[in-house]
Amino acid sequence: MLVESPPSLTSEQFSRLAKIVHDDSGIVLTEAKRGLLMARLNRRLRVLGLSEYGAYCTLLSSPEGDEERRHMLSAVTTNVTAFFREDHHFDALTRQVLPPLIEAARKGGRVRLWSAACSSGEEPYSIAISVLEAFPDVARYDLLVLATDIDPVMVAKAEAGIFTEDAVQGLDPAKLSKHFTRAGNAYEVRPALRNMMRFAELNLHKDWPFSGQFDVIFCRNVVIYFDGNARRLLWQRFATQLNSGGHLFIGHSERLDGPASAAFRLTGPTHYIKAASDTPR
Ligand SMILES: C[S@@+](CC[C@H](N)C(=O)[O-])C[C@H]1O[C@@H](n2cnc3c(N)ncnc32)[C@H](O)[C@@H]1O
After folding, report:
1. Is 182 tagged catalytic?
2. Which of 29, 222, 249, 253 to mutate to test the pocket of ligand 1 (most atoms within 8 A of CB)?
């Protein structure tokens, strides 16, 4: 039997794809990632009925290529995540960040928390669980958790709110039974959590559709894939998008750098506060 070998990606084709990925998302793919990219994209070529990467590059660069560029980004992103990952951030959220925000919400204020690279949802649901435990009557007030990601597959997964046994394994059993219901072999988030959440596809590297400011931004374990310029620009945009006194949480191996660092002060490990202006909330 003749077994067809999978198409291979030349160095020149890899450079073209890496440039598209970088221009679209800020993600840097070094030549060392060529094999990984090929392994991840071969499935896309099969789905599209293409036998070689030259045709794939042509498709991506054509006016019809927009949809496929989204698929390619979905294939190149790394979506590793977990409930209450870096749990010291959630301790800080509960003890330091939420009490004044809950007070503001009870007085009629608008409170917004944003998980800016939410992957399959474990991070924003961990935020929402922290909120609900501190603020059980949250549904009566104007507090929302926004969960966004560049990867439409992940956003759909997050919005579905259904997690495998493996995904919930590290979750405190009390939280699991309080906030999830069993759905066959899986666990589904209860409506009380979902009702305070909104989900959307959003590329941090492109325009943002927001009309208002945020009080808290989680953007963890994503800028590690960006180049320095994309990263520093993102910090500046976060500084603009946060209220004075707002909180920014970033990943354990990430650091705030560039001009935006002057707008923030470090208050805990990889936890920053936007310097208060004359009119703190
Ligand atoms: C490693 S996961 C981190 C998930 C979560 N924040 C955490 O720390 O557990 C990185 C996520 O960043 C997303 N991502 C990568 N580039 C992005 C971009 N330009 N805009 C928005 N999300 C992006 C990926 O799709 C992926 O879901």
Report:
1. no
2. 222
| Separation of alpha carbons 133 and 69, rounded Å | 40
- Return d(Cα 163, Cα 104) in angstroms, integer: 32
Contact call for residues 260 and 235 (beta carbons, < 8 A): yes
pTM: 0.94
Strand order in 162-163's β-sheet? 162-163, 186-189, 180-183
Q: How confident is the model at residue 281 (pLDDT cuts 50, 70, 90)?
A: very low
226, 27 Cβ separation under 8 angstroms: yes
Q: Report how far residue 245's alpha carbon sits from residue 243's, in angstroms, rounded to the nearest whole number.
A: 6
Which atom belonging to ligand 1 lies closest to the Cα atom of 24?
19
Q: Which atom belonging to ligand 1 lies closest to the Cα atom of 25?
A: 19
C-alpha Rg value of the chain to the nearest Å: 21
- Contact status, residue 175 vs residue 131, Cβ threshold 8 Å: no
With beta carbons less than 8 A apart as the criterion, state whether 249 and 220 touch: yes
For ligand 1, which residues put their CB under 6 angstroms from it?
A: 25-27, 77-81, 85, 117, 119, 123, 149-151, 154, 203-205, 220-222, 225, 251
Q: What is the pLDDT of residues 52-73, one digit of tens each?
A: 999 999 999 998 899 999 999 9
Q: Which atom of ligand 1 is nearest to the CA of 81?
A: 9
- Ranges of beta strands (E only) in 30-166 are 111-115, 143-149, 162-163
Domains and CATH numbers, the chain: 11-76 (1.10.155.10), 87-274 (3.40.50.150)
Q: How far is the CA of 108 from the centre of ligand 1 (A)?
A: 32
Distance (Å) of CA 181 to CA 43, 136, 139, 163, 194: 34, 18, 19, 10, 13
Active-site annotation holds for 207: no
